Amino acid sequence: MNSNVETFNGMKVQDLVLISILSASLTAGKLALSFVPNVEVVSLLFMVYTVALGVKRTLLISVIFATTEIFLYGFSTWVLGYYLIWPILILATGVLKGKVKSEYGFAIISGIFGLSFGFFFAVFESFFYGIAYGMAYWARGIPLDILHGASNYIIAIILFNPLVKIFSSQLKQYYIR
Amino acid sequence: MNKKILSIIGVIAAVIILGALYNTYLGPSGVEGEKEVSLQVIVDKENINEEFTFQTDHEFFGELLEEEQETLKLSYDEHSTLGMMITGALGYEVDSSSEYFHILVNGEDAEYGASGIPLIDGDEYVLELRGFGEMDDPDEGEEAEDKEVTFRVTIEKENIAEEFTFQTEQEYLSQLIEEEGETLEAEYEDTDFGLSITEILGYELDASTEYLHILVNGEDAETGVSGIEMIDGDEYELELRSFAPMDDEEDEGEVSDTMEVTFIVTIDTEDIAEEFTFQTEQAYVSEMIEDEAEVLELEYEMTDFGMSITEILGYEMNSDGEYLHILVNGEDAETGLSGIEIKDGDVYELQRRDF
């Protein structure tokens, strides 16, 4: 079977397979660290995928990832937020890609993203349950947001460059452009 | 030292400082010392509703629950991020896929989990079993829940006493009556006061002399059927009762004594607050104020529910948004003006209120 056969919107079979595998890797990465509160590799992986694979494919990965969350946890307002918040990180990484050369820039973005995670959801939930609920939600989660931001920064500063290198070399080796 | 390691140490230090600032200025803080608090546990579907009073030195609600675990037959999990998650109380185990114990503090939704709620002397806590997706405000689209309610109709003079058990997802009693209209052989009208039943179980009401009195769990209802919010397990009863007898139906030979009563009218929006003293021989308040219509600058209508005042002391009532609330000796009246029997020395008050 020719893996270069065009399927939909110029997407190749290998794109479809890659997007599926990388979505699965995100879900697996999230579940693997779910026992540690607000320490996750999802933000890091999204940034790595965006730098190595481009914004468009990574956006599709985020859609599948968010949809998988619904299958795992059921439909809820926070899941709807996932359809927005990950694309924001992907687009921010895509914009920075050409401008930031060192891992510090990406680690800072990842840290800020983790810090503002609770605030984003507070705003999002306010649309459903009112501003008072959103404020309480945010205030209650501030310690977790601090932890999220710090852990995102530390994970990215250590793993961002090695992962981008490995991932890019694997793509060169196996991915037919 | 490596630049990366330095930046990591810097971030960890920042976390510690920010965490300390949060705990000092924003985090929940407990109060030391002995406190007396009450805790009510409600599991509607099991008819569990128990109240406890505890004396405690603990600072947080979660600590109190741990201490009283045996009394409350409590089971819980310690969640890494959320703290204490109550999984059972008074022998009832939560089905965590569809329900949870909701915490209320002094009637308000708690902002924190059990572990984060500071105990304050005199506070009232409620643990109430709720299904996911239930809203606090019924107007914001509460999910329809299946309720089982008992419905009795008593019409003594026709020897009718029937009991029904209904499963319903409706919210108000009037909706249930509409839904079960055929079973109940009910005919009704929509009035300004909500649903008004004109016929039930084949019995046609004579609106001028009788009405269906509503009891909720054996107590007189405070509103009409359209205002009664149904709760699973409730018992509703419609009992045929007569209005106050009319003058010409009064027992012959009964001697009417002159009584002196106080009558107060308060229209807050117009700064009207007037007090009258009336001597009357009438039996009911409606009759007395008919007599005093001129003094009270009164306009009224006679409805199925008795007398309804449309204008008083020059103030015209807006029947859509307000009503005259009746107080008898400072207590809320249980009936309309036509149902209040006059007693010597009574104080009647009409207060304008918004619906």
Q: What is the CATH architecture descriptor of the largest domain in chain B?
A: Beta Complex
Number of helices of chain B: 4
Q: Helicity range of the residues of chain B? A: 10-25%
Main beta-sheet annotation of chain B? 5 strands, mixed
Widest β-sheet, arrangement of strands of chain A: 1-2
- Cα-atom Rg of chain B, whole angstroms? 28 Å
Essential attributes:
heterodimer, A: mainly alpha, 2 strands, B: 355 residues, mainly beta, Ferric Hydroxamate Uptake Protein, Chain A, domain 1, 5-stranded mixed sheet
Structure summary:
The complex is a heterodimer of chains A (177) and B (355). In chain A, 81% of the residues lie in helices and 3% in strands.
Describe the model.
The complex is a heterodimer of chains A (177) and B (355). Chain A has 177 residues and is an all-alpha fold. Chain A has one domain: Arp2/3 complex 21 kDa subunit ARPC3, CATH 1.10.1760. Chain A has six helices and two strands. Chain A has helices spanning 13-32, 42-53, 55-73, 77-97, 103-129, 131-174, and strands at residues 6-8, 11-12. In chain A, strands 1-2 form a two-stranded antiparallel sheet. In chain A, helix 2 (42-53) crosses helix 4. The longest helix of chain A has 44 residues, at 131-174. Chain A starts with 5 loop residues before the first strand and ends with a helix. The model of chain A has no long low-confidence stretch (mean pLDDT 88). Chain B has 355 residues and is mostly beta strands. Chain B folds into three domains: 35-134, Ferric Hydroxamate Uptake Protein, Chain A, domain 1 (Beta Complex), CATH 2.170.130; 147-242, Beta Complex (Ferric Hydroxamate Uptake Protein, Chain A, domain 1), CATH 2.170.130; 259-354, Ferric Hydroxamate Uptake Protein, Chain A, domain 1. Chain B contains four helices and 24 strands. Chain B has helices at 3-25, 61-67, 173-179, 285-291, and strands at 35-43, 48-56, 75-79, 83-89, 92-93, 99-105, 108-109, 124-131, 147-155, 160-168, 187-191, 194-200, 203-204, 210-216, 219-220, 235-242, 259-267, 272-280, 299-303, 306-312, 315-316, 322-328, 331-332, 347-354. In chain B, a hairpin with a 4-residue loop joins strand 1 and strand 2. Chain B is elongated and about 95 Å long. Chain B starts with a helix and ends with a strand. Classes of the chains: A mainly alpha (177), B mainly beta (355). The A-B interface holds A 35-38, 104, 107, 111, 136, 139-140, 142-144, 146-147, 150, 153-154, 157-158 and B 4, 7-8, 11-12, 14-15, 18-19, 22, 26-27, 80-81, 111-112, 116.
